[in-house]
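During the reporting period the student researcher (J.K.) took over the structure-prediction task from the postdoctoral fellow and processed the backlog of single-chain submissions. One of the processed entries is reproduced below for the supervisory committee.
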Amino acid sequence: MGALQKSLKTRHITMISIGGVIGTGLFVGTGKNILSTGPAAVVSYTIACLLIVLIMQMVGEMASGEIVLGKKSGGSAELGSFASYAGKYIGPWAGFTVGWLYWASWVFIVGLEAALIGGMLHNWFPMIPTWLGSVGITLLMTIINIYSVKSFGEFEYWLSFVKVTAIAVFLVVGIAMILGIWPNYEPKGLGILTEFGGFAPNGIVPILTAIVFVIFSICGAEVAAIAAAESENPAKNIVRAIRNVVFRLGLFFVGSVAIMVLIIPWNDSKMLAAPYANILTIAGLPIAAQLIQIVIFISLISVLNSALYTSSRMLLEMSRQGDAPKIFSQIKNRRGVPVPAIIGSTVVAYICAMLYFISPEVIFYFLGNCVGGLMIAVYIFIAISQIRFRRYYDKVSDEPLAIKMWLFPYLSYVAIGILTVVYLCQALIGSLRSQFYLSTSVLIGSVVLFMIMRKLSTRSAEQIEEKLASE
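J.K. obtained the following structure tokens:
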């Protein structure tokens, strides 16, 4: 079967944890969320970021606890995945469901990013067909992932570095503009938050439904927890990655949105179409628009790279649990890379990208809408797993946890409650209703599929036993 190599360094995990959430959702989707929610989008981003922080804390607690339990039992002290935690502490059906939903979400993201990259390349270089750019960049990322996990880490490190630097520059310039210390700009003051229809001009429900889009935009923080398993010191790096989440989410997302609503009126659709570039242009940086386009392109490649890595590792874990074909658990590459899992995820991603060109307004649109809801469902499973894990851990071990969920179990239940409300709120908005029904159908379908497979497996085992007994 082989084993994954621990060749990622601490700096790789640190930068992956910082840059993992900075994707096109931040650069492109933020303006759309402000248009639908108003200045109250700050509340949506704050709630979503707090939820992700809580989820990461839960993942960190389970990961650190599993390492302790593994050492005590004399077994493996490897970091597990969300699927393995759900399977162990909720039930095999939950592990199957979480694993496949998470894998499917990230594979679709690979296809989405590939399609967007192809479109950008075609706009810059019309002689390159969109499909060729999509296939070419995905093939390049596949090669990088197959070569070694260290090549993935190094590549992602520098992509994340560019993204982090761009956001840092925006934050510095934006804060200087708001404080009135940036030359040739007159700050509008706090009045801009209420003078165009109020702080929440469209009511409370859009604030909740916007959380779905925000979670889809910032999903990826947990990638660092997966990557930590292939690092030099998993126990240390998982703690460091989790602790970085609080600071980076608040600074990059909530900070960016706060700057936007204090500079651009929430109903200015033209300016919010590209808020980062437009604010930097207002500041007198004329090449900002071009630079932001380059950063967006780099972000697309970064997200595609991380999505391919994440989906392949989840497929590997699913195979090892017996919930996916055994071929995907093989690690024949001498550098400890799960080549079959990477290729399998890439093939499905190509199919998703093809759907973008075949039916962008129907099939691809519905699949895209489904991902946000599925991520929320996965996070609910993670929270339930953590509650059950903690109760089990407290019974069998008195060793302190390296990462511990705050105010247990109350904050865990609060997270489940908010996530459930947000998920159900999708059904209240016409534009999100199809997303709610589709993601719910996929969720129920995965559970039903597990039951069918388990029944067939049981029946097959019984037939084999009967045959052996008769002989």
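The committee noted the following: The mean pLDDT is 82.
J.K. will present the remaining backlog at the next meeting.
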